[in-house]
Amino acid sequence: MKNILLLFVATLTLSCGVSRAHENPAPELLPAHTVVIRGTRTIPPAWTLRSKPATAQHAMVVSAHPLATQAGVEILKQGGNAIDAAVAVAFALEVVLPDAGNIGGGGFIVHRSAAGEVLALDYREAAPAGATHDMYLDSAGNVTDKSLVGHLAAGVPGSVAGLYAAWKRLGSLPWPTLLAPAIRLANGHIVDSARSRDITNDRELLAQFPASRAQFLPNDSAPAPGTLWKQHDLARTLQLISDSGPDVFYRGQIADLIVAEMQRGGGLITKNDLRAYRAKWRTPVELTYRGYTIYSMPPPSSGGVTMGEILNILEGYDTIPALGTPAYEHLLAEAMRRAFIDRNHWLGDPDFVQMPIERLLSKSYAASLRSEIDPQHATPTPPSITTGGGVHTTHYSIVDAKGNAASVTTTLNGGFGSGVTVTGAGFLLNNEMDDFASAPGKPNMYGLVQGEANSIAPGKRMLSAMTPSIVLDRGGKLFMVVGTPGGPTIITTVAQVILNVLDQRMSLADAVAAPRIHHQALPDVIHYERDGLTEATVRALEAMGHRMEMRRGMSGIVAAIQHTAGGWIGVADPRYAGGALGY
Prior knowledge:
The chain is α+β, with helices and mostly antiparallel strands. It is built from 18 helices and 21 strands. It has helices spanning 66-77, 82-96, 159-170, 175-186, 193-201, 203-206, 210-216, 232-244, 247-250, 253-265, 271-276, 303-315, 326-346, 357-360, 363-371, 489-502, 508-513, 535-543; strands at residues 36-37, 40-41, 54-56, 60-63, 106-112, 118-123, 189-190, 228-229, 280-282, 285-289, 292-296, 392-399, 405-413, 469-472, 478-483, 517-518, 526-528, 548-550, 559-564, 567-572, 579-582. The strands form five sheets. The protein has a seven-stranded antiparallel sheet with strand order 3-20-19-15-14-11-10. Strands 9-6-5-13-12-4-21 form a seven-stranded antiparallel sheet. Strand 17, helix 18 (535-543) and strand 18 form a beta-alpha-beta unit.
């Protein structure tokens, strides 16, 4: 491949990230002096004032909240490894980032040991035993909102089981040590403006449910910035988990509170559902791109396979056009389109459906898809093809002092999940059931039109877009740890950050800051971030036959780590207020 010389008019710096996903708060208007990188306008320079990349010689943590990041570093400094820190960050996020922190949800971990062993852990939520194929349809066959709001929207939570399973196999410090930071935060921490704003933005949802209203809307409003916020019920829940592990959550006192909440609101999760839940170790997806190796999550996450198709298609081009040019955005969108058609037609829970993964990830199949791309014209997505997640998802990346790496993405799905807080337990339940195809052939909350492979069935895990990933350099050494929230944009965001580093030769900070596009086959449209493309590029893409639409919010919020000659650099996306910290 011919290396492309990148000429930068200015260099951005950043390092703050978040947990918001498919529709993040609209970014501020770009000022007249916004810097330009190769024809593409970037994030406002003002954002860089709060977002400087972190550098460290030994270890690094990047998460969606500075306090959670600090919890992870605290554990690393006590001699903990990447999984120990991941557990600490996860429980801390439950406290300080309630719209996405998620003991009431689920997620995925991709872990690479310093010795080179790569593992993938699936603790995705599962449909309760009482779930049925058409449970969210009305008498006319239309999808209701019951998969989005309220008790019926919740799948069986997997996070506590998953985090414990990861610790049992890979952790080193005592389990209670890992929960201590979260318990301390639950007993009182200062609310910042970003999190106060998040609660305010979802006030209408939270106010519908008494326990949520009591916890998140004291005096009928969100805790104000600077408030010392104490979450007594949550602190007690975390202490129980610290003392008893997952048994108290799936069989004991917390399980009783979950079931009582389900009965109170007409939900489906039973004690038997909770007892039956298991986290599952999966074989990671292994990809190659221009000599680099990428490990990512397999089904029931669609992330690794779909990203693999995108990268395989683009790998066949010896010369990659410059970021922000019509030629580049066109090729990128066409690769995304083809990968998403396959994603949602074929992929689902591997315990329920057969999938042609080997064929989908083959270089020869990518070549056949590439041959269909017209470099001058868009290829409309056939409307008859069924193609086919979480809004409030969060990602964190960790490298410890020995070189073990953890890439972790977890979710409640929607912002604050179902809106239901478990009375007496202090945590929100997910609304992950909407990630199933409630009505195959009809769009879900992300506009994804999915197929029968992802239909609802008891015990089945809903298809996800989460794409926690680890990248090795051409010599097989750890190079990057990367992931993001963002619903379907997770896949395209992670792919673009990797492409920005490997093809566009950007620094990690610039690669994360650069504007992103998204195409998911149906609806047949390129979504781009506000002012992320020049007007000339937008017009040129429209002339090629693309429908263009500026997003209301942002496309993903990345947490990434890269190895450098001096150690590690951590970047938390400047699109929101997270944090990167190392030592």
